[in-house]
């Protein structure tokens, strides 16, 4: 009888140790599965995002070793898709230059940017009319008397 109680006591202890060991192994697996997050900065617009190292590496492989945010990556893909002759590096450089110009002008003074845009539109319109041979006529106001 004494021997059976001893065996049962040893069996119960070994089961408890087994549970703790199993839980410990699960924690190790979960800890390995959780990846470290770090902050990545877009090479074009400067936006910062928290990303895993695997994601950062995947994006860098697609974009010539540079990390770009989702919005910039779509703009670069569109540029490459529009004209297949444009290389990925050229599209990245073009978009980066656009972002830098935008940040230097539009963000600092949106009203000036609007004025410059309207000026460019008017200039293009004028050039189109001149190239088609249309003459620019002045509009004058007339007064009619009853």
Q: Can you describe this structure?
A:
The N and C termini lie far apart (130 Å). The protein has 5 helices and 2 strands, in the order H-E-E-H-H-H-H. It has a two-stranded antiparallel ribbon. The chain is mostly helical and 146 residues long. It has helices at residues 2-33, 53-62, 70-82, 88-104, 110-131; strands spanning 37-41, 48-52. Strand 1 (37-41) and strand 2 form a beta hairpin. It is elongated and about 125 Å long. The protein has a domain at 37-108.
Produce the secondary structure layout.
Blueprint: H1 2-33, E1 37-41, E2 48-52, H2 53-62, H3 70-82, H4 88-104, H5 110-131
Antiparallel strand pairs: 1-2
Helix pairs in contact: 3-4
For the secondary structure, the number of strands is: 2
Lateral arrangement of strands in the main beta sheet: 1-2
| Separation, N- and C-terminal Cα atoms | 130 Å
Mean pLDDT: 78
Globally, the shape reads elongated
Helix content: 55-70%
Put simply, the count of helices is: 5
**Largest sheet at a glance?**
2 strands, antiparallel
């Amino acid at each position: 009888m004494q021997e059976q109680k001893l065996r049962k006591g040893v069996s119960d202890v070994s089961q408890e140790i087994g549970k703790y060991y199993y839980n410990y192994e699960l924690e190790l697996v979960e800890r390995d599965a959780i990846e470290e997050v770090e902050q990545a900065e877009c090479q074009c617009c400067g936006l910062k995002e928290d990303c895993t190292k695997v994601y950062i590496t995947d994006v860098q492989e697609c974009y010539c070793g540079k990390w770009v945010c989702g919005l910039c990556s779509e703009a670069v893909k569109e540029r490459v898709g529009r004209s297949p002759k444009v290389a990925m590096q050229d599209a990245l450089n073009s978009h980066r230059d656009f972002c830098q110009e935008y940040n230097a002008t539009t963000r600092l003074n949106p009203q000036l940017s609007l004025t410059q845009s309207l000026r460019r539109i008017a200039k293009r319109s004028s050039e189109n009319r001149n190239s088609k041979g249309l003459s620019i006529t002045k509009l004058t106001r007339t007064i009619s008397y009853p």
